[in-house]
């Protein structure tokens, strides 16, 4: 009697070939993205740092010097802190693509 093809288990060799192919495809996607992120990192870091510092200084200036009651002091501080968190997130994404 012949074995049914329903009960047949996949070949271990074909699983290795598929996993190797998946790793090669992942590297083909990962390495160019990683290279782009590393090249852009200094510009992103400087831009986000400048925005964070300037927004924080302007928020403090508007709140303590100008005494504008309608100035969004807390919202501007949140934006400033958000820029700092974006830098941490960017570095985390770079680290993700750097890992093997």
Compact overview of the structure:
This protein is mostly helical.
Which helices and strands occur, and which strands form pairs?
Layout (H helix, E strand, L loop, with lengths): L11 H54 L7 H26 L2
Helix pairs in contact: 1-2
Description:
This protein has a domain at 33-98. 80% of the residues lie in helices and 0% in strands. The protein has helices at residues 12-65, 73-98. Helix 1 runs antiparallel to helix 2 (73-98).
What descriptors fit this protein?
single chain, mainly alpha, elongated
Shape estimate: elongated
Low-confidence stretches: none
Oligomer class: single chain
Distance between the termini: 47 Å
Structural class: mainly alpha
Number of helices: 2
Mean pLDDT: 90
What percentage of amino acids are in beta strands?
under 5%
Helical coverage, percent range: over 70%
């Amino acid at each position: 009697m012949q074995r049914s093809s329903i009960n047949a288990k996949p070949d271990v060799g074909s699983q290795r070939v598929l996993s190797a192919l998946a790793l090669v495809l992942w590297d083909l996607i990962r390495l160019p993205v990683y290279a782009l992120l590393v090249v852009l990192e200094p510009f992103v870091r400087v831009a986000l740092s400048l925005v964070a510092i300037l927004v924080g200084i302007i928020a403090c200036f508007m709140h303590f010097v100008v005494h504008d009651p309608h100035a969004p002091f807390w919202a501007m501080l949140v934006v400033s802190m958000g820029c700092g968190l974006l830098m941490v997130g960017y570095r985390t994404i770079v680290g993700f693509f750097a890992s093997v």
